[in-house]
Amino acid sequence: MISLRKHILEADDRHRLCSELESSYAAAVNSISESLVPVSETLAAHHRRELRALSEELSESITLDSLRTARVRLEQELASYMEKSCRLLGQQEKEVKKVLLCLSQVAAVVAAQGQTNSSKLTEFTRNLEAISQMSDLPEIRKRLAREIVELRQVAVQVHKGSEEAVEQLREELRTFRSRLDESEQLANTDPLTKVANRRAGEHRIQGLIANKRQFSLLLFDMDRFKGINDRWGHQAGDNVLIEFAQRLSSSVRGQDTICRWGGDEFLAILPDCGLAKANERASQIRLQFNKEYTFKADGAWIKVMILASIGVAEWKRGETPDSIFRRADEQLYQAKSRRIA
User: Which residue among 139, 166, 187 closes a domain?
Assistant: First the structure.
């Protein structure tokens, strides 16, 4: 009897240990998803979604096979995130280097005009060196814009007799402004779909609220999208996202803003549009993208039907960006629940 009781207690201990390990594993996956460094909000949001889905699957049922599959998926998601993050950081570094090269050329032109501006150029060079150590592209743009104002003042002081040098300086300044515009465009565009990214969307919403201008949000979430990634791979999924963004962009007005909010979520910002009109626009847009999508996989053309749920919300005076987005998200959840039911 003692031996049997001992075995029962040991079995209970092993069961509790297994339960604790299952919970800890799922929690660890969840913690990894929340700890992803946001090199790009869009990229981080996509991988967080995948890791949360993995955590939820583990919470529902754990077997030896599901643990092995989960380990492989976790490794793939982290490797994919690292590779894409490194590529994005490399692109940003190249853009910054182009801008700094342009500035150094401008400084060289000014320096050629004489020694009268040497102290200002020394300070300018020092500021450039500090800016080159920064990693935030929008902040770099802001700092460089201030520096170019100072540089223009130096340019005004350049000897008036050297028209050729002055014209060269002006050309360098125009090139610099072009580089700044390119950098700003890169910072506000989703690299995959070429529509606005979340940063640009948030800025647009904040501007409309600051001006107390009426607007509505349409929040889109693609149903059945995960099945494409699982069955045909992420390249096929990327092709569907690109086509979805194109259909959405062609279905709105010129003053509207379409942005990729994260993963397979898109947001349409509709200025001067009340709730009734926004619901009407949502119904019209739904007809445009609730159709077959075509992509190539394994050497064959595949056609799939993808639907999207839509959440609609109109901004109320005094409401914050988080508040109106939360209401749109609640409407989206209800729409998705009705579709599943």
Answer: 187
